[in-house]
Structure formats: structure tokens, C-alpha cells
């Protein structure tokens, strides 16, 4: 940051003029919880002094902003977020979240790391460096998430983690998702953690439903935080073990009523911060970022100043950021002017003393440069529609197939059920079964792996839907009735360099281009959200309304204790083992 | 510490037996503020697990201790202490404070650094390493305290600070006492702070009565804490600026009523910790260490669990010690069993899972080894009594002398007053004035500097008193009626290698030997306190009861805005300049 302490001291002493004074504000002091009238003096991007009523500046600042009696609070700190989930590259993510008052984020580039490895992490860092948002990175600890059951584009061991930890702006090891491995003495996880601890890094945790001895083992291993709590009891137990709690409300999960109840059980909140984890472009555009979680926490009865403290100072302390999270002498001048302490959009946002947003509009100076993204969808080895067929050796007219069957109304929880399906010309044929569709998962990282399976009640009425966003390895997932539609869709994904796509009657009717690693758009939040909306409409012309829009994206998620499909085969996630597509034939 | 995380994880999971279980306790959870029944499992010196009611151990521990329903709390952390003030060397300090529940201290070896420089700091570290107490060291920032007005045994600039910061167990830069220099842009202080920040060190503050723009400048410069507050307003203002507040009750200062009032003004206490600063051996023996400050805070109305949190977790977080300050998985097993949450002596104390004290008795395994201290009292260049005379050139029978005159009942606040005094054989003679005594300050660090002055109403009735403990340069200070008595005392100080001494009727009648740098005893706390008590009685046979026992020790304290005497001359501390002993003659 290039802090010139001499000038800062001189400015605080009134010996030299400041760059900026913000007057006529209700200053929210996150250290003490007090709110009082004050004036904030800034020089070289840092706060020099917060003058209380009656203290006059010795020399007028170059710029004086009238706060019009609004509240001045620090910029928000997101303690755990995957930028890729917004489908925006870091610089566009920056422009999207800053108008909502977020000024610093701690990101886990886990998704791009699974596609591009260390180069992906470097891309995120490099692109983030063009933005005004302070973007800190944590080294993804679980690449791939579950080795052996799928093939991603990279594999991180202790060496890669060490290499990443040595990069600028890298501040820790990202969520230790393999908590089972940690508790059971996984050598790989153990070495990754040791590497992190050796380098003095913060170890971020991820322990859904973890309690009792497993939680103790996980904490003792070094995991310092958790953002997965869904109940008041979980919050309480994790706080008792000394974990930092990152209160989360994402596009995928929001249990704030329970979380708020947990927080209210405990008088001390200094180990509680705020995170978003995964927020889609559309949600960013319509309802915000950290401010949305703040709003939600306040609506659930938590005290506004306390929640603001969590979203600022507590988050910064969790990471040991000594210059962030407060508006106080020596702190970075990252701050926002808000009409009310309720998580609504700020009137104005500053980062390092520069105005970066006014009334919801980003006004920072950084401009996007065209980026030449390498195409990461390496699936040209699929020659044509015939490669997407589910083929059977031999002359049989019928085959027993392990069909994936949802066990509730949605299609996330599912089991395998053996069904006899007709075979024509050596291919399983679904023409007679409207409730079935093919699922094909194709490796896009350079291996010639693919799996074709059958899914019951996915909700596909015709055509095909597919994506290159598919946790955690981000291989291509296509769901289709006819192989030709599936192939048409694959070719479009290749052409776009990745994305989301819908094919109806042989035509592409909806798509979102995600050329950055097949995960992120090149466009702004508005553009990405707009494209996504068009895609959504096309999706629901070929799928029933009950089908979750992101069904394809979690088709391969081996961390789920369900039946999933990876490029390597059909997987029972609960048992962490393969099951055959054709039972009894392999 | 050599933490074996694999074994820790296995112990938490119940796969291997623990070394120690403490059962039947009321567990005080400093993270949540809750108190509940629990059992604590320890392995390899770390806590593996805290089992709540109903959770059984899978395997019994090697040792099981019955807590008899007492409270289990973490060991106390002292966030600012000068070990030398106890007159004990670090290993004996350790044995003295552990039975009171202190398990970690952050020390400023400022006193010994002024005598022995970096070698002094190394001695403190080396000797501390023999002890069970976790002793962290901060690099003394103001050696000498006020350059130019006195000659100490060392001078620390950025290079020395850097060298110390690179040593093991050194965790920061110690109290930036030259706050005036910091605010006024002192190049020396600036460079010392930059060196600390460059090495990621914690910068400890010291800002008595600092407020307004000076406080902002001091905070912006990087000073993170303060332990000098004496009023509720100071506490509040410093907390508002984001400073860590170290609540202090020392042998010299106790303003806990005011401090507690300040704490009660603010709802958040996570930036508040506890320190002792200076505690004498006698006080350590009779009333304790951090527990005494805890007791005092509770007596002044603060909530017990909250104060215990300050004395443990908050202090550890202030320094970024991630394994200290709590009894929780992965934390060092530093803990104490107490009958009540009131700061009274613990029933039992553990450090790294080993019992180190039981009912006030130290039971650790470390034993003192004889130490060969180098004699630091280099005053043999004072040939005899004649060198302690206040001599006047020329034949005058009378001389105008700047006499030091206390302005209140004590002798700390004082001014200079010109008085005509008789001269006999070229020496100022005090025979006719019972209210006067000579003060001589003699450099003991290798320079042939000395100053003889006259003090009114010191309270010396006869003989001489003197010391090698004399802040901040620790030169020899002797107060005497007759030069012969002064010289007798000096020779005894030389013989002892430093200490405190009383001479009456030509005989040494009281003394405390402080062979470690002329500051610390070689004996235990009991021995040092016993010697000191004998000295005290001898002191009050030659001095009036109003004379503070430590008058000599602050005779040279140039930081006081009073008239003081250093080896270089008579000094007006308020103006930070010399004044002549004989006005008009120099």
C-alpha cells in the first residue's frame, strides 16, 4: 500500500493539509459501538484522524464532502466468497459489489483452480489487481475435491499450496472441505495444513454439521473458521470450540433465522463475521452482496451496530488485517455513507480515500481491457452424436441399467434403481419413456473420459441443456433426449469457450458465454445477469418448472451423499465408490 | 512447541489415550462466556478436546485429575511487564508468578537493556528459556530513554531493534515511550517503528494523558496499545481510536476505579487486556500478579467472566498468539483450577499440560543453576570520599547553589531554588543545614561522569542511602550527609555488583544484593522480598517516614517534568535541558 507514516503523522497533527474531509456525519465507531457526530480526515488513502464535535481542522482538506447527516461506517469485508460463483471475472465482480459497500473480499478460487490449476489462481490475482476492490486470495485446499472419483484440470498437493501461499495477496489456505480426511488422518490434507501452518497462513474451515469429537479434531488440526452452520446449536458448539463463525447468506443457502438465534445465545460476538460464499450475478444486481447478509441478520433481530461490526472489524481481525475494518487513525480509508443502519445501498463508497461508488453507480477509474481467454473446453475428441449414445455390446434388445432416480420432488437427492430399458442397434433407446433423459459428463481438461447415464424425472421435456460449470471438476454436463441435440449443445459450448446452453428443436435457444475457464463471463454484472435471464427462459421452455435451474451444475458433485455422474463413471457419493451403469455387465 | 497435529487429531477422535483428563469441573468458556460442567483432555501439552456432560472418553487418560467442582479457566497472560521491576531474574520471576495463575508474559527488558544492551536482552531470553513460564520479549524502543541528558550502558537504533526482533520469542517492539518524538517526527523513533513494521512486529504503545490530535498521530504511526490510562475518559478515547487497552494495576500505579468506569462505558471489551507493568517482589509474594489486577477489576464492579476473558483470550489475541488464552482444542494446555472467579490464588496451575503449582506452591521441575553475573558497577574510578564532595573553585566562603526543592510533601515533584551555602576548604558544607543532603549520580557503565547536587527535605537524617536501580539509565545514585558515608556505600554497591544499600554510622546496616546487572537478585522471590524488608527497616532508621522508599530510583528519571540529576548534570525534565549546579559560574 505504500503507507507514508511520516505524512500520516503530520496530517494527524494538522501540520499538512489532508486530501479529504468528510463532515456532517453520524460516525459509527465499530471499536466502541458508539455513534456520534464527527469529521473524518484522510490523506494518501488512509485515515489520519477522526475529529469529534468541537475539534477543528488546523488546515482545510483539498476536498470536503458533506455527509448530510448520514451514517459513516467502514467498508464491508467478505470473509469467504467464490468469485466464480457470480460468473464474473474479478474486475467485474469488483464493479458489481463495490456499489453495495463491499471494499474487501477473501476469495477462494477453488473453481478456476480445478480447471486451470495454478494458472487459474494467477489469473484471478492478476485480474483482481486491476480492480479497486481489495481482493485477497486463499489457496484452494481441495483440488480436486475427491481424488479418484473424477478428473479435474489440476491436482494440488503441499507444493502447489506452498507456491500459492508465497504469492502476493494470498492470505491463507481456503476452506478445508475434506473435513472427513482431516479427522481421519488423510496424509494429503495433513501435508497441506502443515504447509499452511509453516507459512503462518490462516486455515479456513468448512465443517457442515460437524460436532462432538470430529469438530474438536478439526479445530485441533488447525481449522479456524466455519461458514456452514445451519442451526443455532451448530453456531453455539463451534463458537465454544473457538472457531470463527462466518454468518452466511448465499444464493444457495440462507438459514439466517437459525444463525441469528445462535448468535443471540452468546454474549460475545467478536468471533463472528459475515460472508456470502456463492452469489449469482442476478442476485448481486438485484439485492446486493454483504449488505444483503447484513440486512438479513438485522431483519432476524440482531442489533444493527453489532452486525456492522461483524461485517467490518470482526472480519478484518479474523484475518489479522490490521489496517482494515474500521475508520480510525492509520486504517485504510475504506468506508461508506449510509442513510440507515439496515444494509440498504450506500449513498457513497470510498476505497483508499477515493470515491468508487455513488448511489449504486460504480464510479471508479478502472476500465476493463479485452482479455484473450484460452479455450478450456477440450472436448473435440467427441466426434459426433454417436459418441453421446449409451451403447451396449452384444445383440440384446434390452438392458438392465442403473437409472438415477430422485427421491423427492427435486432432483438433488437421488438413488440408483435398476430398470430394464430397450436397446436398438446397440444403443439404449429412451423413445418410449418420457420420464427419462440421458446425462453425459465429458472431461474437458485433456482426458478422453466420458460417462453416459440415464436420469429419471429430471424434468427435460425435449432438446438438451448443458453446462461447463459443474462442481467441483467443471467437466461438461449435458442432459438430453436425443444424442444429436446433446452434440449440438456440446459444439456450442466449445465455440463459446464454455458456458450454459439450451438446445430446442436442434437450435440453440438460450446461452450464457463463460469464456473465462468456462466459468466466468467476460461481461459486466448487468450483461451476465441479462444473458442468464434469457437462458433461464429458454431452459424452462424445455424443462418442467420443478427442475432447478442449476441441476446440471451439481450433477457431478461427489461431495454429495447421493448418486452422481462424473467423467469417470456413476458414483455413489455416500459410499464414495463407483457403481456400474450396467449392473452385472462390468 | 513441536505440536504433533496427527496425535492431537487422533486423541480428539478417541483413537489414542490422552496424557491427562481433568474431570468434575465448572468449565469457563472464554469464547462464549458460558460456564458449564465439562472434562478437559490433554495430550502432548495441548488440549485435544473439551467434553461436555454426557460425552464419554473412548479411552481413559494416563492421569485423571478430579477438579472437585472448581472452575477451570485459562492461564493468565500479562500483556506488559518489566521483569526487572520484580528484582527477580526471569527464572525466579517464573516461579513467583506461576502459583498465582500467570502462564504467559510479554516482557519489556528495558531496564537491563539500558545497562547491558543486547547482551542484557539475550540474558533475559536465555534465562527465561530455563523456566516453565512462557516469556515473550519485546524489543525495548527507548534505550536510552532521553538521549543527550544521561549516559546509559547502551544505545538502540533501528539496527539493534532489528537484531532483537529476529531472535526467538521476540514478538514486538516494546512501549514507544517517546510519544512526543513519535508525534513530532523524531527520525530515530520513526526508523525504529519502520523496522518493527517491516518485520511484522506488534508495536506497543505508551501514551500517558495522550489525546486529541497527538493520540491520533500516535495511533496512525502504528502504536497499537496503551497501558497508561488513569481516567475513564482516557480509556474511552483510546478505545475509540482502536487502541488495545491494557488495564494496569502495578506496585506504582492503581487507578482501577477510573479504569473500570471507563470499561463500563463501552459495550465491547475485546480490545481490553490486563497487565502489571511493574510489580515488586514483596507485592508478588503477598498479593499476586495478574490475579491481583483481576481481583481489583472485579472489586471495582466489572463482571468476573468478562475480566477473566480480558486476562486470557483478549491478551493472547492482542499479540496474535493463536494457541494461548483459551482451553480449547488445539490450544496449549495452560490452565488453572480456581475455587472462585475472584482473582484469588488457584488450587492448581498447569502449563503445557504439566502441573506447575499446587495451592500456591511452585512444583515445576526446573531448578536454578548458579549464574556467574558480570559485575556491571564500574565505579572504581571514584577514588575516595573526596570525589563525592561538591567542590568550588576559588577562595569563596559561600556559594550560590541550585538546590533541588520538593514542592509538595513527597519528593517527586520538585523545582530548583538558588540558595547560598557555606564553603569550607573548597567544598560545599551542609553541617549547618539539617534539611539538606548531597545527591551524587555516578556513571557505572564505563564513563567517568558524575554529578553532585544538593537536595532539600529529602528526609535523610544521617548516613547514606543509595542504589544501582535508577531509571532509566541505572547509574549509581547516592544520597548522603557526609562524603565518607557516601563512599562507604558506593564500595558496598561495587562489592555486591549492584543493589540497594543503607549506611548508618559508617556501617552498612541494610542491603539488597542485585548482582544481575545491578537490577535483579540471584535469589528467589521469598529471599529477595525478605532482603528488601530488612533494607526497608534500615532505610527508615536513617530517613524520615515520609521519604518514599524508591526515591533514589527515580532521582534520574529524565522523563519526569521535574528537576532530576543524571550522571551528566542537573536536568530540568520539563524543559529537557541542563541547569547549572552553581548558577552563574558555568
UniProtKB/TrEMBL annotation, chains A, B:
Enzyme class, spelled out: hydrolase
Catalytic activity as recorded in UniProt: adenine + H2O + H(+) = hypoxanthine + NH4(+)
Membrane-spanning segments: none
Alphabetical UniProt keywords: Hydrolase, Manganese
Enzyme Commission numbers on file: 3.5.4.2
GO BP terms in the entry: adenine catabolic process
Cofactors that this protein relies on: Mn(2+)
Keyword Zinc: no
Domain Adenine deaminase C-terminal intervals: 412-576
GO molecular-function terms, A-Z: adenine deaminase activity
Presence of the UniProt keyword Manganese in the record: yes
UniProt cross-references to InterPro entries, sorted A to Z: Adenine_deam, Adenine_deam_C, Amidohydro-rel, Metal-dep_hydrolase_composite, Metal_Hydrolase
Amidohydrolase-related domain location: 71-356
Family listed: Belongs to the metallo-dependent hydrolases superfamily. Adenine deaminase family.
Record-given protein name: Adenine deaminase
Naturally occurring in which organism (per UniProt): Candidatus Lachnoclostridium stercoripullorum
Amino acid at each position: 500500500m505504500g503507507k507514508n507514516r511520516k505524512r500520516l503523522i503530520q496530517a494527524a497533527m494538522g501540520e499538512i493539509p489532508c486530501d479529504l474531509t468528510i463532515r456532517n456525519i453520524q460516525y459509527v465507531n465499530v471499536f466502541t459501538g458508539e455513534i456520534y457526530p464527527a469529521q473524518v480526515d484522510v490523506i494518501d488513502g488512509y485515515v489520519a484522524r477522526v475529529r469529534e464535535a468541537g475539534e477543528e481542522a488546523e488546515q482545510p482538506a483539498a476536498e470536503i464532502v458533506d455527509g448530510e447527516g448520514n451514517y459513516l461506517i467502514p467498508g464491508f469485508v467478505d470473509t469467504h466468497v467464490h468469485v466464480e460463483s457470480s460468473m464474473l471475472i474479478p474486475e467485474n465482480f469488483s464493479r458489481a459489489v463495490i456499489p453495495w459497500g463491499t471494499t474487501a473480499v477473501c476469495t477462494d478460487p477453488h473453481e478456476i483452480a480445478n480447471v486451470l490449476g495454478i494458472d487459474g489462481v494467477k489469473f484471478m490475482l492478476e485480474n483482481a489487481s486491476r480492480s479497486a476492490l481489495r481482493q485477497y486470495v486463499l489457496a484452494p485446499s481441495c483440488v480436486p475435491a475427491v481424488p479418484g472419483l473424477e478428473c479435474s484440470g489440476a491436482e494440488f498437493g503441499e507444493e502447489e499450496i506452498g507456491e500459492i501461499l508465497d504469492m502476493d495477496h494470498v492470505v491463507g489456505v481456503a476452506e478445508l472441505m475434506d473435513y472427513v480426511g482431516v479427522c481421519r488422518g488423510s496424509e494429503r490434507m495433513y501435508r497441506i495444513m502443515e504447509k499452511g501452518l509453516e507459512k503462518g497462513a490462516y486455515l479456513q474451515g468448512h465443517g457442515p454439521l460437524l460436532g462432538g469429537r470430529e469438530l474438536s479434531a478439526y479445530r485441533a488440526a488447525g481449522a479456524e473458521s466455519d461458514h456452514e452452520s445451519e442451526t443455532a446449536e451448530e453456531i453455539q458448539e463451534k463458537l465454544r470450540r473457538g472457531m470463527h463463525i462466518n454468518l452466511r447468506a448465499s444464493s444457495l443457502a440462507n438459514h439466517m433465522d437459525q444463525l441469528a438465534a445462535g448468535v443471540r445465545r452468546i454474549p460475545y460476538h467478536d468471533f463472528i463475521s459475515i460472508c456470502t460464499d456463492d452469489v449469482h450475478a442476478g442476485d448481486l444486481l438485484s439485492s446486493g452482496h454483504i449488505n444483503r447478509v447484513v440486512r438479513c441478520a438485522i431483519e432476524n433481530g440482531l442489533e444493527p451496530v453489532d452486525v456492522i461490526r461483524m461485517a467490518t472489524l470482526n472480519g478484518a481481525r479474523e484475518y489479522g488485517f490490521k489496517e482494515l475494518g474500521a475508520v480510525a487513525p492509520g486504517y485504510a480509508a475504506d468506508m461508506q455513507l449510509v442513510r440507515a443502519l439496515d444494509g440498504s445501498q450506500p449513498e457513497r463508497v470510498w476505497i483508499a480515500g477515493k470515491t468508487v461508488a455513488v448511489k449504486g453507480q460504480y464510479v471508479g477509474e478502472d476500465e476493463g481491457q479485452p482479455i484473450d481467454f484460452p479455450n478450456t473446453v477440450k472436448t473435440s475428441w467427441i466426434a459426433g452424436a454417436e459418441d453421446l449414445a449409451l451403447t451396449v455390446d452384444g445383440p440384446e434388445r434390452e438392458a438392465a441399467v442403473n437409472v438415477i432416480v430422485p427421491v423427492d420432488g427435486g432432483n438433488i437427492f437421488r438413488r440408483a434403481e435398476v430398470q430394464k430399458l430397450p436397446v436398438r442397434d446397440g444403443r439404449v433407446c429412451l423413445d418410449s419413456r418420457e420420464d427419462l433423459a440421458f446425462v453425459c459428463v465429458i472431461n474437458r481438461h485433456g482426458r478422453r473420459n466420458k460417462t453416459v447415464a440415464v436420469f429419471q424425472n429430471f424434468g427435460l421435456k425435449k432438446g438438451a441443456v448443458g453446462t461447463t460449470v459443474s462442481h467441483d471438476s467443471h467437466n461438461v454436463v449435458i442432459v438430453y433426449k436425443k444424442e444429436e441435440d446433446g452434440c449440438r449443445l456440446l459444439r456450442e459450448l466449445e465455440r463459446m469457450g464454455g458456458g450454459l446452453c439450451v438446445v430446442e428443436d436442434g437450435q440453440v435457444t438460450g446461452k450464457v458465454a463463460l469464456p473465462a475457464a468456462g466459468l466466468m463471463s467476460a461481461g459486466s454484472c448487468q450483461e451476465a445477469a441479462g444473458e442468464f435471464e434469457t437462458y433461464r427462459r429458454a431452459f424452462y421452455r424445455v424443462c418442467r418448472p420443478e427442475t432447478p435451474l442449476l441441476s446440471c451444475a451439481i450433477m457431478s458433485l461427489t461431495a454429495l451423499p447421493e448418486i452422481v455422474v462424473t467423467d469417470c463413471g456413476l458414483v455413489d457419493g455416500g459410499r464414495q465408490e463407483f457403481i456400474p451403469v450396467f449392473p452385472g455387465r462390468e
